[in-house]
Design brief:
The protein contains 6 helices and 8 strands, in the order E-H-E-E-H-E-E-H-E-H-E-H-E-H. By secondary structure, it is of the alpha/beta class. The longest helix is centred in the middle third of the chain and has 17 residues. The protein binds guanosine-5'-triphosphate (GTP) and magnesium ion.
Amino acid sequence: MTTGVPFTLAETPDNAALETGRLLFCGPVEFVKGVVAMSGLPPADRPEVCFAGRSNVGKSSLINALTNRKNLARASNTPGRTQEINFFALGETHYLVDLPGYGYAEAPLAVVAKWQALLKSYLAGRASLRRVFVLVDSRHGIKDVDEEILKLMDRSAVAFQVVLTKVDKISLAQKEAVIEQVKGALGKHVAAYPEIILTSSEKGDGIEVLRAVIATMM
Ligand SMILES: Nc1nc2c(ncn2[C@@H]2O[C@H](COP(=O)(O)OP(=O)(O)OP(=O)(O)O)[C@@H](O)[C@H]2O)c(=O)[nH]1
Ligand SMILES: [Mg+2]
């Protein structure tokens, strides 16, 4: 069954929205804390957005690019490096949340099970969570492990938006193909926001669009 929603690429926001985004993200950004259990979450006192996705998809790099900091969120070549839910305060008005990657096979099973449980509780039970950006590697498209998370968000009625990462690594033809694949996969998900954002943390594509989307959504 499909929802019949036509999925499109995000349009460039108008100048006012771009400026709102630029201002929000050029202000102070601070690491608040890394959380390993639901009891450690900071008070749900301001809107937040989080970045979810398979291990190594580029979550931490995207947060660094958005905030224009080289090393705010740890980005590394070692998959599974981000093992905590990391909270960053954007000024005094928003939280940005860097999630542990899912689908990382080489960590001990018990550890994986623990992260997955935390990730699921957080995604399903955080009142101030406005939108989940689900990052998808533009070279790979949506995979089975992504589907599990997307279904969880459908069940929890948490709105999510797909952000394709690393578009600097693919050709125009590959771009068209992955967009079609993602559009097809999203048709099955009621919680999907109907616009896809293409990004490169390396080259800057889509970064100002994403800043504007975050700054104007809440
Ligand atoms: N070419 C290119 N490489 C990128 C981009 N974004 C991330 N990378 C690389 O991809 C690798 C993983 O990036 P991270 O940002 O650490 O990925 P992550 O999703 O936070 O990974 P975990 O925390 O382990 O789940 C790093 O080597 C990054 O330099 C991009 O836009 N373009
Ligand atoms: Mg990370």
